[in-house]
Write a structure and sequence with these properties.
The complex is a heterodimer of chains A (307) and B (525).
Chain A lengths: L1 H31 L9 H10 L11 H20 L15 H21 L3 H32 L6 H4 L5 H17 L18 H4 L5 H26 L10 H28 L8 H21 L2
Helix pairs in contact in A: 1-3, 1-9, 1-10, 2-9, 3-4, 3-9, 4-5, 5-7, 5-11, 7-9, 7-11, 9-10
Chain B lengths: L1 H12 L7 E5 L3 E5 L5 H11 L6 E7 H4 L1 E10 L4 E10 L4 E3 L9 H11 L2 E3 L46 E6 L11 E7 L3 E7 L7 H5 L4 H8 L7 H16 L5 H29 L3 H22 L8 E2 L2 E2 L5 H26 L2 H7 L7 H7 L3 H6 L6 H5 L1 H5 L12 H25 L15 E8 L4 E8 L5 E7 L1 H12 L8 H8 L3 H5 L1
Parallel strand pairs in B: 2-5, 6-7
Antiparallel strand pairs in B: 1-2, 3-4, 4-5, 8-9, 9-10, 11-12, 13-14, 14-15
Helix pairs in contact in B: 6-7, 8-9, 8-16, 8-18, 9-10, 10-16, 16-18
Classes of the chains: A mainly alpha (307), B alpha+beta (525).
Chain lengths: 307, 525
């Protein structure tokens, strides 16, 4: 019973708080560019707008196109429920370990790529092929990061994230690798550009180009949640903290404060990276993610050496 | 004297060359009228010996009075600073002529335009698809630039046929004419094998407004205002070229002050567009901080334009023999002060771009247009100079630029970086030129000219920021415009884009496109 409550609480937290991260990042970016920028809450307004809008669906689209937004959102929510936020071990521990997380992400991506091909638009096809190219490089790197964390903890159990209580060389290197992966996974610069209006350069945006209205809202919501999950994982690796003991309010408050600070620090770093580099040539992404993979291997070696 | 020299050079190659008439107008235009049978050979010889691409090739409908069409071809002689203009008559009964396209590539599009607008067939041109009058909207048999055209006739509509590339794994990616950003409409059909582009076909003409037809029958002040609207980002260059042609015809003398003022405004237009494009190149590779910086520079120049002339885009500035916006001592000070801070800001911007590894990696060796290709296609202006084609009307034709020791910006590599570098050095040179010209401005010299409008024809030109803007103008006895042929450099350069992107990957196309930054409205007319 408590577990179910925690799962529900966790899902509510992720749904409610995820969009604000994107709003925050774009606000920081705009302020650096000497612009006022949209409010931090803009993603919520966008979601609300999309949710109450009608949809246009291509005549050639099949059931895959219709079902994809639901698959993408539900798989991301499952991932969100798998992560241990409030208690030491995952509330859905029986459901799977770390590697399941990788495959749950892959499931959503697979359906997204299929649906982009489904409508027969040329942009969708381009987006799918690029996304698959990028994800084939992301997954091995992600596995390496996970392996290094698991080695430190001694199990692939998902609670490994909470099991690391001190910063080690391995976890710092792993966090950097995970940060690079996050950039690719959340379609941020220099791998992809969320702000671009150039349809020919898009990766993620090209895949969802055919979606509108409520379906688009679901897909965007899923992207926000995924971003928050990844940020949370980075935060947990690089700034490990003990989970709150629900004994006193001040302790809980300080835990929440520190939790938010960690996420905000990562959001600011993401914004700074985005603002200071140009987008790389598509095939250079292989070098970029190859670097993440090598960092992952280094993290594994460090973990094995115990540093 | 110059006439005979060019004739003897032609005769060396073409021994039995016997023109119907030769005349020299306005000291820089040599008119050679030839028989229609030797027109092609004459053009080929001129193309080789000058050497010059076909700068203009157009038809005039003279059927009302003389029962004929006239076809005119304009070449540029940079060494002698003159224009060589060859023309021939075509009887109205058999409207056709021998195509130049197979020997001179730069004539191809002009011939297609003559075919669709006048119904004069260029025999032997391998491609007679229509450019601006889309088959989906214009039934065959309508020739709008003929004088007797009155409204679209017929109902049978056709369809445009794109070139096809077949093969295993070759896909077509159609893009546009409606794009995701706020840009002009153009259709791009890519044939790709994976990401690399193996063919790109452009289809333009979506902003065809019939500008040349609109000019017909217009009188002097209205026509200048119209020329400012041909291509909104080079409104000053267009109005300058138009005014230049009209001044030649009316024989109006240009006040010494106005020459320098025009120089200043022409360079200001160049500066704001170059700043805009440098920012555009940065934004297309997602380098957003420097793009924001460039937009600040552009805005500062636009505001400076407004302070000086009352218009951000330098409209309503040109007039015959004079410039409506004078720069007095107060404005002069504003101009010099702004230039000082602009130079400082620009230096920062350039430093920011050159010192970013990720940015330089994107622009270096991307979208290469080789010099040979550029020369064959007749690429002119900024894009040409970036590929090593040394041509700039300011250097070859302008007295004040010669006085100011104008230094032409030129690059050899022809990639996006080269086009960026040309822009950067032109921006810096423009700053210097404006300072130079401002020093030459004198006080109180004002002459308001009331031009005498008469019959005649002349070629007007100006080196806009994209390249040479050309206007060929013919007026009737009342001073009304009978025919106005406009060539914006975009018309020459659009084809170059489809060669520059070959072998590049699709995500690099927007960057290549931006580095050319050609005008849709200037091309479609």
């Amino acid at each position: 019973m408590i577990k179910i409550m925690i799962i529900v609480l966790q899902l509510i937290l992720f749904i409610a708080a995820a969009p604000i991260l994107s709003g925050l990042i774009s606000k920081i970016k705009n302020n650096i560019r000497l612009r006022k920028g949209q409010g931090i809450l803009q993603p919520y307004y966008n979601l609300a707008k999309l949710f109450f809008k009608g949809e246009v669906v291509s005549e050639t689209a099949s059931w895959i196109f219709r079902v994809t937004p639901i698959v993408v959102l539900s798989s991301t929510l499952t991932a969100a429920a798998l992560i241990p936020v409030f208690i030491f071990s995952s509330p859905m521990r029986q459901a799977g370990d770390f590697l399941v997380l990788v495959f749950i992400f892959a499931l959503g991506r697979f359906f997204l790529a299929l649906s982009a091909l489904d409508t027969g638009s040329s942009f969708g096809g381009m987006g799918s092929s690029r996304e698959m190219f990028i994800s084939s490089l992301v997954e091995p790197a992600l596995c390496m990061v996970i392996l290094s964390v698991s080695l430190q903890f001694g199990s692939t159990d998902i609670s490994a994230f909470n099991g690391i209580h001190a910063i080690s060389v391995s976890s710092i290197v792993a966090a950097i690798a995970l940060f690079l992966i996050t950039i690719a996974e959340t379609s941020r610069m220099p791998v992809d550009n969320q702000e671009t209006h150039l349809e020919l350069t898009m990766v993620h945006e090209a895949m969802v180009l055919e979606y509108s209205g409520r379906s688009l809202a679901l897909i965007e919501m899923a992207a926000y949640i995924k971003q928050m999950i990844l940020f949370f994982l980075i935060a947990q690796i690089v700034f490990p903290i003990a989970l709150p003991v629900f004994s006193s309010l001040t302790q809980l408050a300080s835990w929440i404060l520190w939790y938010l600070t960690r996420i905000i620090i990562i959001a600011i770093s993401a914004a700074l990276v985005e603002i200071s580099v140009a987008k790389m040539r598509l095939f250079r992404v292989a070098d970029f993610l190859g670097f993440a993979f090598v960092l992952g291997i280094i993290a594994v070696i460090c973990a094995m050496l115990g540093v | 004297m110059d006439c005979s020299e060019i004739i003897s050079r032609i005769k060396k190659k073409l021994p039995d060359f016997n023109p119907i008439s030769i005349s020299q107008n306005y000291s820089e235009e040599i008119y050679i009228r030839v028989d229609s049978r030797v027109f092609k050979d004459t053009c080929l010889v001129l193309h080789k010996i000058l050497p010059s691409p076909v700068m203009m090739l157009f038809a005039i409908d003279e059927r009302k009075k003389l029962n004929k069409f006239v076809i005119t071809c304009v070449f540029m002689d940079v060494k002698k600073s003159q224009w060589v203009i060859v023309s021939m008559d075509i009887p109205q009964e058999s409207p056709c002529f021998d195509s130049l396209a197979k020997s001179i590539h730069s004539a191809t599009l002009f011939e297609r335009e003559i075919w669709e607008m006048f119904g004069i067939e260029p025999r032997g041109n391998p491609d007679l698809r229509r450019l601006n009058l889309h088959d989906e909207a214009w039934p065959q048999g309508n020739y709008p630039l003929r004088k007797d055209f009155n409204g679209i006739n017929g109902q049978v509509l056709g369809e445009y046929k794109f070139g096809r590339v077949d093969g295993e794994g070759v896909f077509e990616v159609p893009v546009g004419p409606v794009h995701a950003g706020i840009i002009g409409p153009g259709h791009f059909r890519f044939s790709v094998a994976g990401e690399p582009i193996i063919n790109l076909e452009l289809r333009l003409g979506f902003t065809h407004r019939g500008v040349e037809k609109l000019f017909e029958g217009k009188a002097y002040p209205d026509a200048i205002r119209l020329s400012e609207c041909v291509s909104g980002d080079s409104s000053f260059a267009h109005s300058l070229a138009f005014t230049h042609a009209l001044e030649k015809i009316s024989g109006a003398s240009i006040s010494g002050q106005a020459v320098y003022l025009r120089g200043i405004f022409l360079e200001l237009e160049r500066m704001y567009n170059h700043a805009n494009d440098i920012g555009g190149i940065a934004i297309d590779v997602g380098f957003s901080f420097s793009a924001a910086y460039a937009s600040i520079i552009k805005e500062a120049i636009l505001q400076l334009n407004e302070k000086l002339s009352g218009n951000r885009y330098l409209k309503k500035v040109n007039a015959i023999g004079w410039v409506l916006a004078d720069i007095d001592d107060v404005k002069k000070q504003i101009l010099l002060n702004s230039l000082k801070s602009l130079k400082q800001d620009f230096k920062e911007l350039v430093k920011m771009l050159y010192s970013s590894v990720s940015f330089m990696d994107r622009v270096d060796a991307t979208g290469v247009l080789r010099r040979k290709t550029a020369e064959d296609l007749g690429v002119i202006g900024l894009a040409g100079r970036a590929s090593g084609v040394p041509m700039d009307l300011r250097k070859h034709f302008s007295r004040i630029y010669k006085e100011a020791k104008f230094k032409m910006a030129i690059q050899e590599s022809g990639d996006v970086l080269a086009r960026l570098r040309v822009r950067i050095s032109e921006f810096e040179e423009s700053c210097r030129l404006i300072e130079e010209f401002t020093g030459k401005l004198s006080k109180g010299e004002k002459t308001s000219v009331n031009p005498e409008l008469k019959q005649g024809s002349a070629l007007g030109y100006a080196e806009g920021w994209r390249g040479p803007v050309l206007y060929w103008l013919k007026t009737d006895s009342a001073g009304l415009i009978e025919r106005c042929k406009i060539v914006d450099p975009s018309f020459h350069n659009w084809q170059a884009l489809s060669y520059a992107v070959l072998g590049e990957i699709i995500p690099d196309f927007p960057l290549c496109n931006k580095s050319f930054d050609l005008s849709y409205s200037g091309n479609d007319l």
